[in-house]
Design brief:
This protein is mainly α. The chain has helices spanning about 1-5, 10-35, 50-110, 115-145, 155-160, 170-175, 180-185, 190-205, 210-235, 235-250, 255-285, 290-295, 295-305, 315-325, 325-340, 345-360, 365-380, 385-400, 405-410, 415-440. Helix 4 (about 115-145) runs antiparallel to helix 11 (about 255-285), helix 4 (about 115-145) packs antiparallel against helix 17 (about 365-380) and helix 13 runs antiparallel to helix 20.
Length: about 450
């Protein structure tokens, strides 16, 4: 109870979800019990059994269609609430991505001064991020948790879905290289923003002292946008209530089984990453994995219970130093890890994006999924440590691949529980990263 007093937003989201389930179920039952029923007495006058059966079958299909249309009409009234929240989310995508990426490139530029430790850290972070992103895609494609929902795509996005068209080099260049960064930001086109941010960030770092005011300005913009994101998130309970109510009106409580399967798949993926991937990395670098896990068990439990890997950072530093890793490694790798190496949060980005696409019956090609993974490799840097910013990154991916952003609210309803697993995984991932870099530096512990 004290946890929800400190995190009122999470409490309100859970309350909104419960109210949405209750109200949606009541409306769903009400529509079913008062549904339009065609007068079948006329079919009794048909003497031919075959024709009679065909007519009755046609009437049944008509009734099902009418029932679906009624539910869709009623649900649309509640979807307005979710539309308001989604528009607020879309509003902050471009400036937040641009500001954080420019700052991220500036941070990478600082590695020139720290030499070999910085290079080893960056190589490991990049490798771990690719593995996490790829694992998220593998889990969601193998188990297909989104296909349990069977959502109808919003009319506005039906013609805007992913289409299989011939990709030419000209189309690729036009899509990647921004003709106008202002136009790209106005349409929330993420990839051109990424390209511009990379050029701008490298150029700003290259000019040295002259560029420092710009870096400071973007740092300020980034912090301001994070604050704006927090303001926007205050509307999340309203959006969740509208989205959950609308879905339950159309599908009934069967949506709960879909949530259960979603959580089972994602937590299974996290466990595989922690006890499979990270364990294998420790074997390769001759690190006593189980002793390391034993020494960091308190930070892991703290991160899991608070759904915040940042809250466990002081304890993680203390635990790693007690494990035998030097302060010079821990104090360098761990803080960077909380911006560049949050494995659980990063894995969630690919998992969540494809999950939403599956929910709407959309197929994303292998080439598009690889492109998504490579874009997230860059856009996730510096943003994964802020849960709300992760939400914005996913929203940007949905916009880029023409996936209905409305699906984001369905995830938000259970995001608190998913975040508990992500946060615990983040702590383990950064602890292993510190141990690997220390081992590469020749430390024995």
């Amino acid at each position: 109870m004290s946890y929800f007093k400190k995190n009122k937003l999470i409490g309100f989201i859970i309350i909104a979800m419960i109210l949405g389930l209750i109200l949606g179920y009541i409306i769903n039952l009400s529509i079913d019990s008062n549904a339009f029923k065609y007068d079948r007495s006329l079919t009794e006058q048909i003497s031919n059994p075959t024709i009679k059966k065909q007519v009755e079958k046609s009437l049944t299909k008509y009734e099902v269609h009418q029932l679906s249309e009624i539910k869709k009409s009623v649900a649309s009234n509640f979807s307005i609430l979710s539309d308001i929240f989604l528009n607020l989310i879309k509003m902050i995508i471009a400036p937040l991505v641009l500001a954080v990426l420019v700052m991220g490139v500036a941070k990478v530029g600082d590695f020139k001064s720290v030499g070999r430790i910085g290079l080893k850290t960056i190589v490991y972070f990049t490798s771990a991020t690719l593995i996490a992103l790829a694992l998220g895609l593998v889990i969601v494609n193998v188990f297909e948790p989104g296909k349990v929902l069977h959502l109808e795509r919003p009319e506005a996005s039906i013609d805007a879905g992913i289409k299989s068209s011939k990709q030419t080099s000209k189309n690729f260049i036009d899509h990647v290289i921004p003709e106008s960064i202002i136009r790209s930001m106005a349409s929330n086109d993420i990839l051109p923003i990424v390209v511009f941010a990379l050029f701008f960030g490298v150029a700003t770092a290259a000019v040295g002292e002259i560029g420092k005011p710009i870096i400071k300005a973007f740092d300020s913009i980034g912090h301001i946008m994070f604050k704006v994101t927090n303001y926007v998130m205050n509307f999340a309970p309203v959006g969740v209530f509208g989205a959950i109510t609308a879905v339950v009106i159309q599908q009934g409580l069967s949506v709960l089984s879909a949530y259960g399967y979603l959580m089972l798949c994602f937590f299974g993926g996290l466990l595989f990453f922690v006890f499979g991937v990270l364990f294998a990395i420790c074997i390769i670098f001759k690190i006593n994995y189980f002793r390391l896990m034993k020494d960091i068990k308190e930070p892991i439990l703290l991160a899991f219970s608070t759904a915040s890997s940042e809250s466990a950072m002081p304890q993680t530093i203390k635990a790693l130093e007690s494990h035998g890793i030097s302060n010079r490694i821990v104090s360098f790798v761990l803080p960077l890890g909380y911006s560049f190496n949050l494995d659980g949060s990063i894995m969630y980005m690919t998992f969540a994006t494809v999950f939403i696409a599956q929910s709407y019956g959309m197929d994303i090609s292998a080439a598009d999924q690889i492109k998504m993974m490579l874009i997230l490799l860059i856009t996730s840097k510096g943003m994964a440590g802020v849960p709300r910013a992760s939400l914005v990154v996913i929203a940007g991916m949905l916009t880029m691949f023409k996936i209905p952003v409305e699906g984001l609210l369905l995830l938000l309803a259970v995001d608190q529980f998913l975040d508990m697993g992500r946060s615990a995984t983040n702590v383990v991932g950064n602890a292993v990263a510190s141990a690997v870099v220390a081992r590469l530096e020749g430390e024995k512990f």
